[in-house]
Records
---
Amino acid sequence: MKTDFIVVGSGIAGLNFAIEASRHGKVVLMTKKDLMESNTNYAQGGIASVLDKFDSFESHVEDTMRAGCFHNDRAAVEFLVREGPKMISKLLDLGTPFEQKSGVLKLTKEGGHHHHRVVYAGDATGHVIEKTLIKHIKSSPNITIYENALAFDLIVRDDRCLGVKYLLGNDVKAVFSKAVILATGGVGMVYRKTTNPNIATGDGLAMAYRAGAAVEDLEFMQFHPTALNKHGAPPFLISEAVRGEGGVLKNSNNERFMPRYHEMEELAPRDVVARAIAKEAESGEVTLDITHKDPELLKIRFPTIYKKLLEYGIDITRQPIPVLPAAHYMCGGVKVNLSGETNIRNLFAFGEVARTGVHGANRLASNSLLESIVFSQQVVEAVKRLEQEIEVIDFSLPKLVEGNFDEVKAGIRETMWTNVGLIRNASGLSTAIGQLKKIEEALPMGISYELAAVRNLALAGRLIAEAALARKKSLGCHWRDDEN
Ligand SMILES: Cc1cc2nc3c(=O)[nH]c(=O)nc-3n(C[C@H](O)[C@H](O)[C@H](O)COP(=O)(O)OP(=O)(O)OC[C@H]3O[C@@H](n4cnc5c(N)ncnc54)[C@H](O)[C@@H]3O)c2cc1C
C-alpha cells in the first residue's frame, strides 16, 4: 500500500500533523490503541504561552532555559516561545474549550514559571485537546485512520526512510510513503512507577534507533514530584497546578520543607522538588496539602483529581495527599532539527519522542504540549515540499509469535526503577545495562503486540542507562550521587 504521508501516533503531535498535512496529500494515521489513548489524553495542567501583557517572550525563554540548566538549544527555545500564542489561537479556532472569563483566557502558574502563562481546561486540558482534534480528523476525507495498528519497524534504504512495517490484528503488513513521521510519545512505562499510560513504551525511539537514527539527551528522564503514593493505587499524577494554586508540601513532622530547598519553594523546577521530596520521604510520609483552600473552588478547579482521589479514599478538600516522585517525561529522544528532520532522509519526529533541544536537562512545566504542536506544524512545512516519487521495494516481514512477556516486562521496569531512577551511580547503571542486554538477547525473533513492547522497553531502557552512565556529572533531572 502507498500513501503520501504516514504518521504514527494520535496524541496532540500526530493529530495536529494529520489535520494540517491532509491539505497537501493523503495521510495514513496509525495508532496502537484507540485514537484517544495517548499521554496527551492525561495531561492535566495546561499549555504554556505568553499571553499576559505583563509577561514577555524573554521571560518564558529564560524560565525554559533555567529549568533546562542551560543545556537547551536557545534557538529552539526562542522558536517555541514565539510560536506559542499562534498555536493557542489555532487551538481556540479549532474549538478547544480553554477556560475564559469575559472572553479573556484564564492563566495559571506552574513550577519554574515566573508569570501566569498556562492556558488550561479544568484539570483535563489534554483530554479536551484530544477530543477537539479528533473531531477534525474524523471529518477529513484525506486521512485514513488505522486504530489498534502497531508500527514495529521502519523500512530504510540508502539512508532514506521509505515506509513502515506494522501489525493489525494478526496481519503483518507494510505501507510506503513520501515521508514517515514518528509522533509516538514517551517511554514512562520503562519504569515501575510512572504517570504514563500503557502505550508509553518508547516504540518510536527504539524503531528510529534500530534504523540508524541519532538519539540524544536520553539521560534526562523527568520524574514528576507529586504522584499519588497510596498502597494499592496507581501513581496517579497530582498536577503541578495544585501547587500553583497554593498547595504546600509537608514532611512527616507536618513541616513545610520546600523553603529550605529553593527560593521558588513549591514552584521550584521539578527536579529540585522531586529530589527534596525523596529526601524528606526517607524519614516518613510526604504530603501535598491544599485543604486551606475553599472546598467548592477546589472541586471546580480540579474535578478530575478530586473525583479520582475520592475513589482511593482521599478527599482533597479535607485531607493532605500522600505523594512521591514517579517517571513522567523524556526530555531527550530522536535528534531532530527545527524542521523535525532526523539524520535519515524522509524520517521526521516531533512531540515527546523527539529531542528538539527545547527542554535541555529538564522540561519546564506545560512546555511539552506546546512543543508537540509547534513542531508538528513545522514538519508539515517540510513535508509539503517533498517531491520524490513514493518508492516501493521488496521487504521481508517477521512471523507472528505467541507468548506472554509480563514477567520480563516487570523485570525491566524494576531494574530501571532501582538502578536508573531519580538518583544514579556507575555501579547501578552498569548493573542495569548488563541485565537489559541479557534480556534483549534472550527475546525470541518474530512479532506480536506484547513482544514489540518488551523489545522496545529493553532497548529504550538500555539507551537511557548508557546515556546516564556516560554523563558523569549531575545536571537537571540526571542526578549522580557518585560524581566525585
Ligand atoms: C499524566 C500526565 C500529565 C501531563 N500533563 C501535562 C501538562 O499539563 N502540560 C504539558 O505540556 N504536558 C503534560 N504532560 C506531557 C504531555 O502530555 C506529553 O508530553 C505530550 O502529550 C506528548 O504528546 P505526543 O503527541 O508526542 O505523544 P502522546 O500524546 O503520548 O501520543 C503518542 C501516540 O503514539 C501512539 N503510539 C506509540 N507507539 C506506537 C506504535 N508503535 N504504533 C502505533 N502507535 C503508537 C500512542 O498510542 C499515542 O497515540 C503530561 C503527561 C502525563 C502522562
Note: The first helix runs from residue 12 to 21.
---
Amino acid sequence: MSEKIKAIVIRSNDRKEKDTNVLLFSVEKGKIWATLKGVKTQNAKMKLASQPFCFGEFIIEEGKTGNVVIGFECLESFHEISENIDRYFEASAVLEILDKLKFSNNFEQAQAFLLVLKTLKSLCFFSPKSIYAINKFMIGLFEILGVPLREDKCSCCGTTAFDKLYIDYSTGEFVCTGCKTYNNEEVQKTVLAALKILRNTDFEKLGTLKLAQGSEVLLLKLLVKNFERQFDEHLKLMGVLS
Ligand SMILES: [Zn+2]
C-alpha cells in the first residue's frame, strides 16, 4: 500500500551503489527515512528528491527493508539557496536543528513544518540580512515547543517593571534582578529588542529589517545555548556561528 506525503528533504546518504536514502520531514508522519532506488543512474526528477531543502509530494511504499519512494513531484526545490554560500549555511543550520528535534504531537509537528517552509522561503526569495531568518526560526521553534522566550516580563514573579533581564538556561526563561540566581546571565537590551522585533516581523519583511548592529549575533548565541540546554543536543551550525 502506498501513501502520499508532503515533505522537505533534511539530508541524504548513499546506501548502495545506485540507491540513496533520504531523511524526510513530513506533515503527516514527521521524520522518516525512505530509499530512492536507482536515483544515481536515471531519472533526473527523482534526483531532485535527494537534494536537501527540496519540498515536494512523495509517494512512499513500505518495502521489505523499509520505505521506498515510488513517486515524487517537486513543489519547490529551493535550489537558489545553494547559489549563495551564506544562505546555504543558514538554511543547512535550520535543517540541522530540525534533525535534532523530537516532536511530542502532530500539532507541534505541523506547526514546525510550516515554520521550516517559511524560513526556507524567506532565505530563498526575500533576501533577509545574514542570520535574521535563523534567529526568527529559533524564536518560533521555542514557542511551538512550549518554551517561549518572553522579553516583556519576568517569567518568575511576572513583573513588567524590570530594569534588567537575565536568562536562566535551566528553564529557558527570562527573569528579573530580584528573581535571578547566581548563574543566570544578563541579556543586553539590544538583544531583547532584536528578539521582540524579529518575533513581530513577518518572514517576507525580513529583507527590509535592520536590527542594532551585532545584536543578531548575540541573540543567536543565546538561542543556540538555550536550545542546547533545553534539548540536551549539540549544534554545529557550520558557517553560521563558527
Ligand atoms: Zn522577577
Note: The two ends are 45 Å apart (CA to CA).
